[in-house]
Amino acid sequence: MTKKWHVLLTGFALAGAGSVIPANGATFVFHDEFSGTALNTATWTAQTGKSGGLCSSAANSRVSGGLLNMTVRRGSTADCPWVGNRVISEGKRSLGYGLVQTRAKWNAVPGFWGGFVMFGTPSGGRRLADGEIDTEITNGVIHYRLWSVNAAGKRCGVPIDKSSKTLNQWHTFGVNRQSTNTQFFLDGVRQATITKAQMVAKGCTWPFTRRFSMVLSARAGGYGGTPVASRFPVTSSVDWVRQ
């Protein structure tokens, strides 16, 4: 596959890595082109087990032909009726402010739940208190979210949904995180902005000054609804991730 390079915003920091200069001259502080034959374990961990009530297996991820392919299939136990894939950068890579993008094709059939999520660097407390940034995909909808907690420690955030009939096609999803707002993009066009003022007005904390790790996921059930068995297995593909 021929990959199109985009010169992104410069000056963003990545823990443990300096600027990367690809052969054609484009410069990124971080990128993964999935151009090898295996997942880059210096950046990603492919999870096996249950997270958020849904099951994943490292065996359901495969790097081939310049793509990370993530498959969701029927499971073999009552505890895991559907098994997908979830790769995380936590503990290996984290991103500072700026634009991070991924080019992906999510095979969002009924019951699918996947996408591109970012989590604040763990502080040892409740996960949501460190911040969560969602670009999540279900059948026909892109869910843009900022989550944290309120004074009582309960989930608190601003949700924005956008319908899409082309989620089984290639798109570039972007998240531009700044000190007082986060912007969400689809194919370079801004879709939503969630600000610190909006979050504070709802009684939410603002932990989005932290560094954030990345998650790429393709799973079924839960927030995605009841899977339609005849539509599985399905495979979603990620072409690249860049900042």
Write a short abstract of this structure.
The chain has 243 residues and is mostly beta strands. 2% of the residues lie in helices and 45% in strands. The chain is globular, with a radius of gyration of 17 Å.
Note down, in words, how this protein is organized.
- The longest helix is centred in the last third of the chain and has 6 residues, at 196-201.
- It contains one helix and 17 strands.
- Helices cover 2% and strands 45% of the residues.
- It is an all-beta fold and 243 residues long.
- The two termini are 20 Å apart.
- The chain has a 17-stranded mixed beta sheet that branches.
- Strand 5 and strand 6 form a beta hairpin.
Strand and helix layout:
Elements lengths: L30 E2 L12 E2 L2 E3 L2 E3 L4 E4 L2 E8 L7 E7 L9 E8 L6 E9 L11 E7 L2 E9 L5 E9 L7 E7 L3 E6 L2 E7 H6 L10 E9 L13 E9 L1
Parallel strand pairs: 4-7
Antiparallel strand pairs: 1-17, 2-7, 3-4, 5-6, 6-7, 6-17, 7-16, 8-13, 8-17, 9-10, 9-16, 10-11, 11-12, 13-14, 14-15
